[in-house]
Amino acid sequence: MTLLSLPPEIVDKVCELLCSHCQTEPLSHFPHKQALVTPCPDQIWEHDAEGAKALVNLSETCQALNALTLPHLYHRVRPDKDILDTLTFRIYSPDHRHEVFKFARSLSLTDTLTRRYINGQRLDAEEQSFSFDAMLKMMPKIQLLHLSFYFIYYERNLLESTRLESLRYLHIEGPELDLATGEPHNLQYANLFQQAPKIDTLVIRVYDLSWSSRSMGLGNVKCLKIVNTCVNQRDLKFLVGSCPQLEQFVFIVRGKTLTRREIDRGYVTLQTLPQVLSLRQGTLRYLEVYCRYRGPPYGVALAARNTIVSSLKDLINLETFILGGQYFPFKVGEGRNPPKYCLVDLLPPSIHSVTIESKDQNFYEPMCALAEAVRSGSFKKLKEVRQYNFDMKRAFLLARYEALDNDTFRESEELGRRNNFDEEKIFFHDMLLELSRGCNVSFCVHEEKLFVRDPLA
Hints:
Elements: H1 8-18, H2 49-75, E1 106-111, E2 117-118, E3 121-122, H3 125-137, E4 144-149, E5 169-173, H4 192-195, E6 201-205, E7 208-209, E8 223-227, E9 230-231, H5 233-241, E10 248-254, H6 260-264, H7 273-277, E11 286-292, H8 300-306, E12 320-324, H9 342-346, E13 353-357, H10 364-375, E14 384-388, H11 393-403, H12 407-412, H13 418-438, E15 440-444
Parallel strand pairs: 1-4, 4-5, 5-6, 6-8, 7-9, 8-10, 10-11, 11-12, 12-13, 13-14, 14-15
Antiparallel strand pairs: 2-3
């Protein structure tokens, strides 16, 4: 593969690694090849004929390569201004030719309120859709497309002649509630998916998602991410049903309010999500869930009931499960501890890896129960079990047991008698040892920040 055949974003990275000039001064500010010695204190080369010649050649190479990286550099910035406010899309390149668009691999479009007017004249829906179609038609090789729409309610259409055969990643981001009516904006994308049949990753972040059972064009989608989006069970079934090759599903809810009205409308919760995903039990292998609702004081109990994860047994091919966000993702018993068999009852036999990030819950005993199940042959494929934000209370109790000299002191500390402690310690030790023989078991008291990363990435 030749250097010039690489995508522009790769060539741009090569430039950065080759020459620090590309990260600081514009290329036009580089020293002329006859001026091999620069008077500035932080001069970039020494007065050495051979070395200076090599650096001059490197600089010229970077200047040549930089022309190819312009589409990547241009589209790296979200074009909130100038570009979308006119129907003539200007290019910041030396010759201002539209051909530079053909090299673009990624594009971020933001539709703002100003987008509705051109020179003081309001654009109708047809004109707005035309400008949307025209821009995408100029970039036939884009692979990543990020669409952000605000304030506007109209249908997005592409002409049949506009084909996005190279598009692999589509991120759709819509507005929150309408400040005037208090109702959610519903966005429609019509034939966008049909014109880009090779999309394999779809990210949706809108306030309220509705989906038609007749939606087509998602036959190649393997990864689906739903972020801070209210969607009822029926519509999510339609969406999941439109993705026959779905292998990965990510469901992230951060800071949304869960009310009785939303529950009554059938919005998806952790209790109902596994049932919906069972439509793709034959293909789904990866499930990641982060769910932390922000409810009113009177709704704490309501939120708690609907954020308890239900069994994943129907997902017969699930290999990886990541759970985070909830203080109590399982029903709690005495001492606010999860039930002993919560993990055994949750996981399907096909599971390979389990990661849980949960505060205030100690999964020490459930992991021991899981070890018993592994020994009995219930989870033959399990290779990794991890918990982050591990509650250290049990570990401190064990340490205090060891530190105290006799049963009298232990009873005064309400720790129980020595023989009970020994039996418990031996049981836990043996079970975890048994589990660790077949897979990697780890407890971490620190937060690994599994879900702090940008959920839109």
